[in-house]
Amino acid sequence: MSTAAIYAAVVLFWGSLYFAISFQVGAIAPEIAVAYRFGLSGAIILGWCIWQRKPLNFSARQHLILFGQGVIMFSLTDMLLYNAISYITSGVAALLLSTLPIFNIVFASIFLGMRIRPPVFVGAIFGVSGMVMVFWPELSAFDLTSASLIGFGLCLIATVSASLAQIVSAYNQRSGLPPVETAGFCMLYGAAFSVLVSLCLGRNFTWDWSGGFLLSFAYIVIVCTVFSWVCYLILIGRIGPDRAGYVSILVPIIALVISTLFEDFRWTILSLAGAGAILSGSLFILLSFRNKTTGTRLQQ
C-alpha cells in the first residue's frame, strides 16, 4: 500500500471518528469507553498476528517500553480528550489538537535528533493558521472561565501526550520493533491501564445495547482503531512523526464535511479560506516528501 494511500485512509477514517463517537456520548464513562475500545482492538490485532504466525516473543525490557507507549498513546491521551470535550467545544479541542505537528517537530528534534525540515514547519504553520480561521467563531467565544481553563489544560496535555507517544513509536520502529505486532500489545496495555483508572475513580462498567451504540462501537474499533492505527504507525515509520503528525490538521476538515452533510454545519467565507490554507499546507508538505536514498517522491 502506497504512502499516499495510507495517509489518505488515516485522514478519512479518523475524520469520521468524531461523528461515530457522537452516538456514544453519555452512554458510558469515558474511561470505560477507552478501555472497551482498545481492549477489543488489541485482542483483534494480536489474534490476527497469531493467525498469521507473526513472532510475538518480545523481551521484558521491550514489553516495558511497549507498556509505556500503550499507556500514553492508547489510554491517557484519549481519556484526557474525552474529558476535555465536556468542558470546551469540539472546535476549540480540534484547534488545540492541530498543534500536534509542532510538538512532533520539536520532540523529534530533541529526542530523535531529527533535523527540523523547513517545508514541514512551514506547512504546519499554514495548517494551524487555517484551523484558526475555520474555528474562529468558537475561538472568539472562548472565555477564561474555570471550566474553559480546565478543558484547555486537559486538551493541551492530551496533545503533548499524543506527540510523545508518537516519538516513542518512532523510536521503537527505529529499534526494529514491528509496528503491527507491538500495536496489539500497546492497546492491551492501554486498556488495562484505563481499567485501573476506572476502578480508582469508581466508574461503573456499564454497556449500551442500542443499535446506534453497537454500530458506532464496531466502526470505531474495526475501522478507526485497528485499521487506522496500524496504518498510522506504519506511516510514522515511513515518513517520520513530524510529517505523519500533519494528519491531525486534516482530520478536523473531514469531520466538518461530515457535519455539513449530517449535522447542518454552516460554512462561511472565513472557514472556507481556512480549509484552503490547511489543504495548501498539506500539499506543500506532501510534495516535499523525497526518498533520501533514491530521490523519488514518497508517493510510489
Give helix and strand order, one letter per element, not per position. Answer: HHHHHHHHHHHHHH
Secondary structure tally, helices: 14
Largest sheet: number of strands, sense, barrel closure: none
Give helix % range.
Answer: over 70%
Oligomer status: single chain
Radius of gyration: 19 Å
* Euclidean distance between termini CA atoms: 9 Å
Average residue-wise pLDDT = 81
Q: What fraction of the residues are assigned to beta strands by DSSP?
A: under 5%
Overall strand count: 0
How many domains would you count in the coordinates? 1
Morphology: globular
Low-confidence runs = 290-300
Task: Determine the structural class based on helices, strands and strand pairing.
Answer: mainly alpha
Give a written overview of the molecule.
The chain is 76% helix and 0% strand. With 300 residues, it is mostly helical. It has one domain (3-288). Helix 1 packs across helix 13, helix 4 packs across helix 10 and helix 7 (118-134) packs antiparallel against helix 14 (269-288). It starts with a helix and ends in a 12-residue tail after the last helix.
